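Input.
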Amino acid sequence: MRRLFLTSALAALLPIAGVAEPLALVLGTSDYENLPDLRRGEEVVDAVDGLLALGFDVVALENGEAAGVARSLQEFMTAVPEADRILVALSGRFVTDGDRTWYMTREAASPTLMGLGGTARALPLENLLLVLARQPSRAVLLLGVEEEAEENYDPWLREGLGDLEIPQGVTVFTGSPRDAANFLADELSQSRGNLTRLVAENDGIEAEGYLPTGFVFNPVQAAAPAPAPAPNAQAEETALWQGAVALNTVLAYQNYLERYPQGRYAAQAQQGIQAILSEPNREARLAEEALGLTRDQRRQIQRNLSLLNFDPRGIDGIFGPGTRRAVTDWQQQNGFSQTSYLDREQVGRLEAQAARRAQQLEAEAQRQREAAEQADRAYWEATGAEGGDEAGLRAYLERYPDGRFSPAANDRLAEIEEQKRAAAQGADRQSWDAAREADTIVAYQQYLEAHPQGRFVEDAQARRNRLVQARQNAEGNAEARQAEEALGLNALTARVIEQRLGTLGLEPGTVDGRFDGDTRRALRNYQRDRGLTASGFLDEPTLVRLLADTLGQALAD
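Output.
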């Protein structure tokens, strides 16, 4: 049991003894060469005394540069295979592209997407999570992150944590650098401490991942260590323990305890039994894990749930509380045990129901669209078809601004405007040209006041009203645009959406992955036909329906 404090100037390191002891890697950085310093970032390194008292082998590095961090990781990874519990604590600056997250070393430069992934100056959290996954129910990641970090390094990277894909059995705690250091020194260093209760009582720490009721990370220390068995006996005990961990069942752990009631892994075996007995629906969880669902497959499951009106609280491929609640509700409605975990049969049932629902919704949308087109055509015949006057054309556009005949109505009004301009008196025409050039509410109002009987009164009133409406809608459009940007669509998905809109005859314009005015109008008509909020911007319900419609069309073909 040793405390290894490493610095970037350290020339050689002592290896950690290959014994089955708890292991901790602690990195804290406050003094950055190129990035802004982080107050209290290094305090986590000074909070390891309690871990040492519990028997942890500790590899700790304060303000480490890339070379020092690499040596620390090498020492840590050497000891991982023999560790019975693993704790990793990182405090400093983090950067994310939304899905991936990196921990920045002391000399890290301002990061860019293409200059980050392969550099040794940034430590990917996903790699550490893979290491922690080797010890399910006995692996903890503690992150000290600056509160309210808002730095954007380039269009793809920002400061902070992304959506961590936490492996089963791994616990992640997050807080400010100071809260993280205090949590490491206190709660995580308690012998037999109930972390479930302790984190609930700590307002500065948030928990994700594995956290069953009564979760104990550090078992009670034995009063005196048992005599070391002979080498052969020790190897036999280790082999039996490794087999019990691989099976991860109550019977396997009990088998180990019957053979070695005072063995080196007795406390861990008891903890394993407690974890299994205290976890509800464990068999269902293991069955879902055995499916090996990819993130895209999990996103599709979330879309299917949403399509069936079971809200997963996001289409992100992460099965959090919202998705688990949606799965439970779906299971209840379909006569399955309400475990919140899916098996192969349920995934197939859910997919089939969603495909059928997509076709039903699209058929209903088609009926609504045909009825709307019929009403659109009838109104056009009554107001703007051959011989339609200016009042009729404006009446049509007021009711159907995105209607099938709106381009024809706008073209005809432009012709009428040009005719009036040619016939207008000089002062009237000049005032109108000035108002058109300014194209503001004030300019049109000034024209109306100056020429109450002018030839362009109706044009000015229509354009003024349009701008007033646009101003009223601006706030809603800004929120809708932000919601669309939050979806993180790539160009390929955008082109798929444009192709789908074109297949439906909604005329989205050129299929180029860029949403222009034609695309926005097509989206508004798509949303209107399906009873969605007709903003012209993508949101989660619209995206779910569009992708579901695409699936339904593929099945129909």
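The two ends are 66 Å apart (CA to CA).
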